[in-house]
Sequence to fold (394 residues):
Amino acid sequence: MTDDVVERYLELGLRLGRLLDGLVDAYYGPPELARRITDEPVPDPAALVAAARELLADLDRGDGDLDAHRRRWIRGQVRGLAVTARRFAGEQIGFVDEVEQCYGVRPTRVDDDEIADARRRIDAVLPGRGPVGERLIAWREAQAVPLDRLAAAIGSLADDFRERTARLFGLPEGEHVEFELVRNKPWSGFNYYLGDLRSRVAINTDLPVLSTTLGHLVAHEAYPGHHTEHTRKEAGLVRRRGQLEETIFLVGTPQCLLAEGLADLGLEVIVPTDRHAVVAEHLRPLGIPYDVEVATAVSEGMELLGNAVRGNVALALHDEGMTVDDAIEYVERFGLLPRNRAEKVVEFQTDPTWRAYVFCYIDGLRLCRRYVDGRPDRFERLITEPLLPEDLAA
Fold:
């Protein structure tokens, strides 16, 4: 039986999902509840604002047969949903405030000097002569995975990463992932969690998938990332403890920040050293190029550069009035990306669902990496327990 507070939370998320496509990332809760919400008229945003505020007040009063941690966790998610409802009701909310209230972190601009330092690090280890941007683009695009070999490469990596994840943390019996190749999406990969311990992972082929990022992508979406977190929480929190609030996963909530952070950290946890060499062992027999030496040398600088530029351009677009064309040029110039990849970065950040989401990757990884600090037991806590960003500082 669903606690009234939990049911109201599920209802609020499902109703908001009717206003914003993609806000409900996953739902495998009571099917009759979802059918009832689907059959309702399209909700009034003002009514959803009122419902969110009332639910927050009831949670603060301690209503519902829930312990303090569950109430606090649900409250964190509802606080984020209230922001989405307020935006649909026409309220003007500053972008930085939106990010903080949705995800529990307050974004800040990275100084241009730090970006220049990351570029210098890459320049120092990248082979060849000439402008660093041209050299980096040429090297990176040379690592493209031929489309006809992509499925085999994904399968080989997923089998290895599944074994490593099961050995370190255990996996629920019967869990399963299916991979598919898709096009015309704003993201590079997406985990569609279907419930019943199953995921469908879509890999976007709008742009050539690079061998040097493929291992990270598989780990992020499947093992030990999103699929692993979803299945362990379904098995442990939903099936064993009856915590039905875990049956919905909603964009615009701190749940996403920790999910993306742990997923981005996943490959480091299951392959602590020589990550590029391990991935290359799977790809080279398939005739897929992989420059391990250079990839290892430039990886830290590229992570710093990518996060700084993506965060800065999000703030510029939504807080400072930068145009889309200027944003694409900024990503090209400072992020050292070709035009097509810069356009994809900006497409993601101007999508109504994903406009603030980039900070889930930037700040989520920062928080999770600092918390885990090389300890697998702490990563296991992330994929097992319902946590909020402030819990990682405790």
